[in-house]
Amino acid sequence: MEPKPEFAKDEVKGLLESIASTGKFWLDWDKLKSMLSFQLKQVLSEYPEAKMTAEQQNASLGGTFEDLVKRLDEELHAFIEGPPFTLQRICEIILAARSIYPNLSKLALALEKVWKIETSSW
């Protein structure tokens, strides 16, 4: 499941690096959210679990890779009014995912934790 290139990879990476280092962004939230979604799907697809059989994915992830991607993307898109205050940390996680999180389930847990911090603080 290779994400379709809606944006230039370098453009997205540069933007996320800027947000990760400064916490500031200048794009409309909907466009930024689309770029985050694009990069998230790209990063997720780079993990070995993405290439496993559905049976192996169920054993490793507790579901299929497609289900995991859909769930994480839906959680990101649940922020309708604007970006989460944890946006800077989300960018850091997405940018350094492979070096910090050895497998996909650990990355998913980290992202879900950051999103839950956001929703529980309301």
Category from helices, strands and their pairing:
mainly alpha
- The overall average pLDDT, rounded, is 87
Individual helix count: 7
Integer-rounded radius of gyration = 14 Å
Please describe what this structure looks like.
- Belongs to the PPP4R2 family.
- Pfam families: PPP4R2.
- InterPro entries: PPP4R2.
- With about 120 residues, the chain is an all-alpha fold.
- It has one domain (about 10-120).
- Helix content is about 65%, strand content about 0%.
- It has 7 helices and no strands.
- Helix 1 packs across helix 2 and helix 4 runs parallel beside helix 7 (about 105-120).
- The protein is globular, with a radius of gyration of 14 Å.
- The mean pLDDT is about 85.
